[in-house]
Amino acid sequence: MRSYLLLCSLFICSLAFSQSARSQSTGSGSASVRGKLTGKNNKEPLAGAFITLTNTAIKTITDSKGEFFLSPVPPGEYTLTVEYVGYATVSRHFALKPGETEKIDLEMDTKTATLQEINVFGKISQEEEAGARQREKRANNIMNVISAKAMERSPDINAANVLQRMSGLTIQRNGGSDEAYPVIRGLDPRYNNTLINGIKIASPDDKSRYVPLNIVPSDLLGSIEVHKSLLPEMEGDAIGGSVNMVMKDAPEKEVFKVLGSLGYSKIFIDRKFQGFSRADIQSKTLTERFGAGYIAQPGDFSRSNLDFKYNTPLPNAVAAVTYGRRFLHNKLGLLISENYQNQYYGSNSIFNQAAPDVHANGAPGLSDYANRQFSTQQMNNGLTLHLDYNLDSRNKITLTNIVLNSNLAQARTIIDTAILGGNGGRTVPGTGPVTTDYTSITSRQFLENLKLEGKHILSKHFLVDWTGVYSYATKKTPDMADLGLNSKIDTVHTTSDINGPYTFSATPNYFDQITRVWQHNEDQDFDGMLNLTYKTGLPKNGTLELKAGGLYRHKTRSNDQDEYDLKPTTNANGVKQIFTDINTAQWTVYDVGGTADYDINRYRLHEYITAGYGEFKFSFPAVDVFGGARVEHTQQGYTLNTFLATGINGVNKDYTDVLPSIMAKIKLDERTNLRLSYYKGISRPNFYDLVPATQQSVTSATATKGNPYLNHTTGDNYDIRYEWYPAEEEQLFAGVFYKRLVNPIEFGYQSGTVYEPVNAPDATDYGAELAFTRYFGHIGVTGNYTYLYSKVSSVKSYYNLATGYVNADTLQKRALQGQTDHTLNISLLYRDTRKRFFAELAFQYIGKSIAVVYPIYGYDYYQRPQLE
């Protein structure tokens, strides 16, 4: 369980300052107003309501308990007005005497018409649980929201951990758990997109277009929205859904928070942390340091980053500071938030490599048994700056800048034992070759997203809003070093009988090779968006909203790589040296100029997107109907930095998609909705998917290669969801969905151990979701359950063990890669709002899923179910 350790000295100083300021301001005959706001029907406190004194600049919002305080207020007569989305406005007239504190408690009644008027132009609290439930209830599309308050109460310190507790979501992690991407409704991360404040952001990943969510601190977030259906105004490349991380907004009253926590990874209680020195790692390649044509020498390569040592890591630490307030008579809003995390984590895992067994008519069997041990230190730093300025009551300008920085150091030890006969001299179980790899990786990921936007009410009926975005991301991995050793285990017979008793003997570890790789990629976006909204009334308390707009994105990406291979020196007979330690190992440089001039992993990519849409919304007290269409034109391609006489040196793709959508929200009563939805979405190939470069995995004996002939995926998406909101922080969702994918992209073996993305035959994905939160006094229970089933056909080789016949073109029906059959999250809650105490006990179950698609019928790799 996560526990925040408040920094007492800063808190006391802040409290003292606040009290001092309050005592000064309430002097000289000034008065004050305090009170509490609750819902008339459920008596729940209403957080985030706007409180104003008419004809003054005095205003505030209610806190999490529905309470408010206005001070100083000069003596006189006033009218206090309360506005809250979805409720009828309430006013109270009163008179204040010098030094008096007026107490006003109010109840508010729900009113649908108020919502319809505020829907386009209004604002709603995003950080409270009550606000999150209202946004789900009032939303035009199907979505789930988790609030800042829920994140603050949870043990999760980053966006990835938060999302894995949401309905229909799991998180895909790599072998070292240092990357984390969302899987929405069983669809691979490639079918989803990641947004910050509604805008797609550049990716620091060297292959894909998505953002590793574990580098996003949860303390920077005001909320996370998961959109499971798309309106025409939303970007269309999200067949699975969109994850929108909404950053904290400038508050209506001054906020200053300092948070901190300490913890420890359990895995390092059971084993030591494996680390290495980073002092000698060179950030630049030899060519960058010494110029083109430089001849690399053995002494140019450091040793300390391959000198692994075991130690006890420091505790994990998190610290966060947030400050916000309004200035210039509430015209200017400021919020600045900083979060720092220093984490130590690791993993112990087994990877089994399969291959056709030459002694079993080619039937697949386990060829390698690899023990993998990872130790990682990751330092994340996040900063968000928000400024908004109200030019007047009809015009507002907002500037938001988010900077994320992640520094990682990871040590990997992989011990791989061959277990198939005929592979390097294996004779009986326990014998054969053993390969040991030590890999050290340091990387720095940097992401910045700068967004300038404006909203302008032109008249009673027209609103125009515009957005300009600059997004930049980079990932630098300097001098990734991999040391390979090998040895052999054999039998020693104790008698002359070859079938008689024997013992085992092992050779020393021989120095096999070292590779050193420098890799650097950059991703840059320039975005522009413009929207025009028209709104008018209709008979029978209805409204009509028409919206049209467009987007243009200019994206460029580059990837540079330089690799050196170091070979061990040998004796006069050509025998490799026995490896004692890295400091005594001797090597020669195999490719003295590196691979920078001809490395196929050096390329430039571009993606230019032009989009336009038209959208309508009819809203009546009992039903809302939304619909329209979006058109997206894509120009996408790459160019290699080196010319390949016999290869593909560049690709340009140009295609246009028309993406219709239609949705209905039937309001059964004030607390209950029934939603029906259809939309069409697309999924563009990841950047690296198109480049015909082969990249070796550092975590397994596999490699990936791009496919220039890959087509983008389209998908038809259908949803039905029932929603019930019994109280401010309570909900019950139950729904079913169905997706049909054309040209789904799946990774499959092409030859040996090389994967390649291919367009599989059409696929289907469907399932059911249930989410609930309910309180019984101080005790509550919250959770969600998702059942998923997907089906796709892929071409496999089938071995008939009885006849030895091989059919190379057999179709096998299977689940989509990454699709989990069952997901369950459930938490027991304790809440005491009066004492401001909250506790949570959480449980999660994730069912099995296909991790790797194998080329032989019936032998795909499955990841076991997980409990935590």
CA(first)-CA(last) distance: 12 Å
Helix content: under 10%
Largest sheet: 23 strands, antiparallel
Tell me what portion of residues adopts beta-strand conformation. over 45%
The assigned structural class equals mainly beta
Uncertain stretches: 1-28, 112-124
The strand count comes to 45
The mean pLDDT is 84
Inertia-based shape: globular
Number of helices: 8
Radius of gyration, in Å, reads 30 Å
Helix-strand layout with pairing:
Blueprint lengths: L7 H18 L5 E9 L10 E4 L5 E3 L5 E7 L2 E8 L6 E7 L4 E8 L3 H7 L10 H10 L4 E5 H6 L5 H5 L5 E5 L6 E5 L7 E5 L2 E2 L20 E7 L13 E7 L7 E9 L3 H4 L2 E3 L10 H5 L18 E3 L4 E12 L4 E25 L7 E29 L2 E24 L13 E26 L4 E32 L8 E5 L3 E29 L3 E27 L18 E3 L13 E17 L3 E18 L9 E20 L2 E12 L3 H4 L3 E3 L6 E3 L7 E12 L6 E12 L2 E7 L2 E6 L3 E14 L2 E21 L6 E9 L7 E11 L4 E10 L2 E4 L8 E3 L2 E2 L1
Parallel strand pairs: 1-7, 11-14, 33-37
Antiparallel strand pairs: 1-4, 2-3, 2-5, 5-6, 8-13, 9-10, 11-12, 13-14, 15-18, 16-17, 18-19, 19-20, 20-21, 21-22, 22-23, 23-24, 23-25, 25-26, 26-27, 26-28, 28-29, 29-30, 30-31, 31-34, 32-33, 34-35, 35-38, 36-37, 38-39, 39-40, 39-41, 41-42, 42-45, 43-44
